[in-house]
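Example: N-acetylneuraminate lyase.
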Amino acid sequence: MDFARLTGLIAATYTPLNERAQLKTDVVPAMVDHLIQQGLRGLYVCGSTGEGMSLSSADRKAVTESYVQAAAGRVPVIVQVGHNSLDEARELAAHAAQCGAEMISATCPSYFKVTSVDALVDSMQVIASGAPELPFYYYHIPALTGSAIDMPEFLQLAGKRIPNLVGIKYTAPTLFEFQMCQSVDGGRFDIVWGCDEMLLGAYATGAQAGIGSTYNVAPALYRNLVDAIEQQKWDEARRLQLVSIEMIRTIGRYPFHPAMRCVLGFQGFDVGDCLLPQPKLSEQQAEQLRSDLQSIGFFDWAL
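Written out as structure tokens, the predicted fold is:
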């Protein structure tokens, strides 16, 4: 399949919610404008960050439509359509195509674990068939799906059976496998990195794009990091990656995504709290988080 490979920083977007845990999509246009102005090169919708797995299919469709409309073709919108029901996932893929998304992506089913490469290929084939005209990225995140299938083996088999498979969103710390995936079939596949705190290592092993949660709140930091890498200023790149690691460790002292939603609130984007079963930060926790971020200079260099 002919497609344009992803490049640069792509935000794994949050799903705005109100105090009743209902969608608040009127916030989306301002968020999208901000991300594009900050140099983000794409939007990854309804993934782990966007709590796609906690949303109803109807809400996932509404979120997809809101981001596609807000992006208005300025940057690609990649819609994560994975579901424990493959029929539901295929329908979500078809909807993404119908409403104008540029690409689709999917995790594997996770309640009944995928334990063989054949089962993974069969499952992804069903999902990808819902939007055969769109490039499809498998979303490899074994920490959440419990599926640790060998990815080079998956690409070799799936590449023969899924016509619109173009790559992987690779969210695992195994850089050696990430590098090997890039070499499969002469570099045919687009392997996109998904661990923000290891972006430098990923670029060193051939990455051209990253999809991440913290790109939402610290785009300037990551832009500067990528610039330093491209200019081969390695000492500066290592320094900036360490800043990223310290930021992620600071936010990670709290439940991560609830804390990230608080940080977006600090920056003027009220996206509400996470859906259950993820917790809500207390007012005391939120103020402590603000103080912790101030202590590392976050508000001086994040945007």
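The first helix runs from residue 28 to 37.
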